[in-house]
Amino acid sequence: VQLQASGGGLVQAGGSLRLSCAASGRTGSILEMGWFRQAPGKEREFVAAINWGGRPTRYADSVRGRFTISGDNAKNTVYLQMNSLKPEDTAVYYCACRFDWPAMYKYWGQGTQVTVSS
After folding, report:
1. pLDDT for 17-76, tens place per residue?
2. First vs last Cα of the chain: how many Å apart?
3. Radius of gyration over every alpha carbon of the chain, rounded to an integer in angstroms
4. Cα 51 to the chain's mean position, in Å?
5. In terms of Cα–Cα distance, which of 13, 22, 17 is closest to 76?
6. What's the pLDDT at 72?
7. Is the N or C terminus of the chain more exposed, i.e. has fewer CB atoms within 10 Å?
8. Residues in contact with 40: Cβ distance below 8 Å, sequence separation at least 6, in sequence order
9. Neighbours of 85 (CB within 10 A)
10. How many C-beta atoms lie closer than 10 Å to residue 92's C-beta?
């Protein structure tokens, strides 16, 4: 599976961005896709995940109510709609996928930079 993340950019606090993650290859085998982020000097952290095996969509507490993850049934593209952005949301955002639960995320995209100015 190959993952291509896009949609990052520079936005003012309170603004919105929509990230996209395009998947190719064995997309039919994908069980779950997620978004993660890594800010400078910090560890990578979970943001949101969408699951096609019956598990509920999940969000980190820091983004719940502001971010929405969605995807098509063909598992070709997953989106992360980010509203009410804050400077602390500034990070490189990565998409990833896994084929089983609770296996580790196996495939990762290259990342897209999101910068929120105050």
Report:
1. 999 999 999 888 999 999 999 999 999 999 999 999 989 999 999 999 999 999 987 768
2. 37
3. 13
4. 13
5. 22
6. 82
7. C
8. none
9. 22
10. 18
How far apart are the C-alpha atoms of 64 and 5, rounded to whole Å?
Answer: 21
Which structure tokens are listed for 64? Answer: 């719940």
Q: Are 111 and 93 in contact (CB under 8 A)?
A: yes
Closest CA to 52 of 80, 67, 33: 33
Exposure of 66 in the CB half-sphere (CA atoms within 13 A): 16
Q: How far is CA 70 from the centre of its chain?
A: 10
Determine the Cα–Cα distance for residues 98 and 30; give it in Å rounded to an integer.
Answer: 6
Whether the Cβ atoms of residue 35 and residue 15 lie closer than 8 Å to each other: no
* Cα–Cα distance for residue pair 23/30, rounded to 1 Å: 10
**What size, in residues, is the chain?**
118
**Amino acid of residue 24:** S
